[in-house]
């Protein structure tokens, strides 16, 4: 009996820790939300759809599997060889250098094969992983491109960026890192277990006797680490959201002297993330030593039981315990515990990768709302005759923004839309290009419903100049040609000359190759406007759509804009949401909107004679423009004050 005391002591210590941990496990409430447990797609569904991406590479993965099995040879075989060497060294008789050399050579060979396999594994995995990643990114981007404006409005831009970058990355890591490690660890555990039984059944059973404890510890660890992991994730998202919003609003923060307050807010979030990280590390700091304790305990048991078996020359199932057996098992225990620990630690990563996968798959399952009809037409030329027939439209169900709007525009005609802010002017323009589909009525282009046209064709024939000009980072040329390479410099400059943009481009050091910063913020509002005109004119659309900018522009550029507008009106049909009197007067016809309905329409003179709403709007705008002219200084960058009832935004 006395001889079992050492084992009892080891057992008592392990039991005590297990009991403490088990109690902690029972008292803590599980919190599965947030890191992928609140999913609505099942694991199997996600894996099935992700495998679609791995499928084209199945041969590579097969090769990988073989390499992987080879690479674990070291983990499984090296303890046996070391045991063998130990035998040779301690053999009382018959020790030969050749025997030793041959063992060492085999050991070295296996090691070399393993290292080579590991290298190949890395290289192949990274290559296939990057391929999958770039395909995923491409698919996500292409899919986002196909979504309608309404669908795009429903997802914040920041989230879309995360989908294309972080989430795709998480998925590719799932393939290259997590899944591969899971499979590999699984193989190692199986391999080592088999090897242990081959070497000595008794000692193998002893080592396996520790597995229930490992399972228990892993379970508890998973519960704790999940909580910590979730808080880290929340904290990170929180900081990212804060940053993306506040970095773009930094100028406003500075203008309103809010730096101090915002710094406080940021620090608070930063501290929260720091605390969450610290807690996460603590969980690991408890788990790892516990597994280590199990490792030590099993080594102690091995040494004790092994030594006893060795001295007493116990034979079990024909196997005796030798010095070599003990040496082998000492190494086996290490290779057995490692993969189990990393399996437990990878669990959260797996869950979070699944969560990322689901987010992307959800985007993929958003069907594009505005699509071509199967037999959509694609005429080479259009005349540019437009008709709205009793058009009803709402962004939000039952909140009608347009209520029975009807009008007809002849090919080549210029029509100005005026009306107070929110009356639906911008909406009319974006319906024409099918950025949204209408609910009731018809929109006709050359007498054919616009739904019958291929969307790309529709948009090719229409040049849209939006209110806030969007300028991409790149060069002036890249912003004008928009990836279409077929334009010559001469054509580009001709378009610039046409819209009077040539004078300021000519003054730039690099001309068309001048660098444009993000959103074109190294150019003035007026210059950006001219660039957008040039962009449109260059692509020669039959229909021009202009939402006139309301930003105040210096008088000189204003003249240029006015002049180019007059020229553009002669190119084809033009629909313009107008704020300047000069633009309005230049139009062939004016449509006055009020609360989503057409109130009046006619020429400038006709409408003035009617003395209706247009007359009032006109008087107010006239007064405003005169006031502005009276001011002798240039107020180019001051935001214009909007007064109710003018030709609104
Ligand atoms: N994307 C949108 N989602 C929901 N409502 C919108 C959206 N865009 C515009 N609206 C609403 O539609 C109405 C008309 O807007 P808009 O056509 O932009 O007016 P205008 O250009 O005449 O100032 C406004 O009441 C506005 O709040
Ligand atoms: Mg508008």
Report what the structure shows.
The protein is built from 22 helices and 14 strands. It has 649 residues and is α/β, with parallel strands linked by helices. The protein folds into two domains: 43-364, ABC transporter type 1, transmembrane domain (ABC transporter transmembrane region fold, Up-down Bundle); 386-630, P-loop containing nucleotide triphosphate hydrolases (Rossmann fold). Strand 13 (589-594) and strand 14 form a beta hairpin. Helix 18 runs parallel beside helix 19 (555-568). The protein is elongated and about 120 Å long. The site of adenosine-5'-diphosphate has 14 residues, from helix 13.
Question: Keywords, please?
Answer:
649 residues, alpha/beta, ABC transporter transmembrane region fold, Rossmann fold, 2 domains, six-stranded mixed sheet, elongated, binds adenosine-5'-diphosphate, binds magnesium ion
């Amino acid at each position: 009996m006395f001889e079992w005391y050492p084992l009892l002591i080891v057992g008592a210590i392990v039991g005590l820790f297990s009991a403490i941990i088990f109690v902690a496990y029972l008292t803590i409430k599980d919190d599965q939300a947030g890191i992928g447990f609140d999913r609505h797609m099942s694991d199997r569904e996600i894996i099935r759809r992700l495998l679609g991406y791995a499928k084209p590479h199945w041969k590579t993965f097969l090769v990988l599997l073989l390499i992987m099995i080879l690479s674990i040879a070291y983990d499984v075989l090296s303890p046996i060889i070391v045991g063998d060497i130990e035998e040779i060294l301690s053999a009382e008789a018959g020790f030969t250098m050749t025997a030793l050399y041959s063992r060492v050579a085999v050991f070295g060979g296996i090691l070399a094969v393993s290292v080579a396999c590991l290298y190949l594994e890395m290289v192949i995995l990274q290559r296939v992983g990057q391929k999958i990643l770039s395909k995923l990114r491409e698919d996500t981007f292409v899919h986002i491109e196909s979504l309608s404006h309404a669908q795009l409005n429903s997802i914040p831009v920041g989230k879309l960026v995360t989908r294309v970058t972080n989430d795709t990355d998480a998925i590719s890591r799932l393939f290259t890192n997590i899944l591969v490690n899971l499979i590999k660890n699984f193989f190692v555990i199986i391999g080592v277990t088999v090897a242990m039984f081959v070497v000595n059944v008794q000692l193998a059973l002893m080592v396996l006797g520790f597995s229930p404890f490992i399972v228990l510890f892993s379970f508890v660890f998973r519960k704790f680490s999940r909580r910590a992991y979730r808080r880290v994730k929340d904290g990170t998202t929180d900081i990212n959201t804060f940053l993306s919003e506040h970095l773009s609003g930094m100028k406003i923060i500075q203008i309103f002297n809010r730096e101090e307050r915002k710094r406080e807010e940021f620090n608070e979030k930063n501290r929260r993330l720091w605390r969450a990280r610290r807690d996460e590390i603590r969980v690991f700091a408890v788990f790892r030593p516990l597994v280590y304790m199990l490792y030590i305990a099993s080594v102690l048991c091995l040494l004790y039981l092994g030594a006893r078996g060795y001295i007493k020359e116990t034979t079990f199932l024909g196997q005796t315990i030798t010095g070599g057996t003990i040496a082998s098992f000492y190494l086996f225990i290490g290779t057995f515990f490692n993969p189990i620990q990393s399996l437990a630690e990878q669990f959260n990563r797996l869950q979070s990768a699944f969560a990322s996968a689901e987010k992307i798959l959800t985007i993929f399952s958003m069907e594009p709302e505005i699509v071509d009809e199967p037999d959509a037409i694609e005429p080479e030329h259009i005349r540019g005759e437009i008709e709205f027939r009793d058009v009803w439209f709402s962004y939000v169900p039952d909140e009608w923004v347009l209520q029975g709007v009807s009008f007809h525009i002849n090919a080549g005609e210029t029509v100005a839309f005026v009306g107070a802010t929110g009356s639906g002017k911008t909406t009319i323009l974006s319906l024409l290009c099918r950025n949204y589909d209408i609910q009731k009525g018809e929109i006709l282009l050359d007498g054919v419903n616009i739904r019958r046209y291929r969307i790309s064709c529709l948009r090719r024939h229409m040049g849209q100049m939006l209110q806030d000009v969007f300028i991409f980072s790149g060069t002036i040329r890249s912003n004008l040609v928009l990836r279409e390479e077929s334009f010559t410099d001469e054509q580009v400059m001709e378009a610039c000359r046409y819209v009077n943009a040539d004078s300021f481009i000519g003054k730039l050091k690099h001309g068309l190759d001048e660098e444009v910063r993000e959103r074109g913020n190294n150019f003035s509002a007026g210059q950006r406007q001219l660039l957008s005109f040039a962009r449109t004119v260059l692509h020669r659309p039959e229909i021009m759509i202009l939402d006139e900018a309301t930003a105040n522009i210096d008088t000189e550029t204003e003249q240029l804009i006015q002049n180019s507008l007059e020229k553009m009106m002669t190119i084809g049909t033009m629909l313009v949401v107008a704020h300047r009197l000069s633009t309005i007067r230049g139009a062939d016809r004016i449509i006055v909107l009020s609360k989503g309905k057409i109130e009046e329409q006619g020429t400038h003179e006709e409408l003035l004679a009617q003395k209706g709403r247009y007359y009032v709007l006109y008087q107010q705008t006239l007064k405003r423009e005169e006031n502005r002219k009276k001011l002798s200084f240039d107020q180019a960058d001051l935001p214009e004050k909007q007064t109710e009832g003018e030709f609104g935004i």
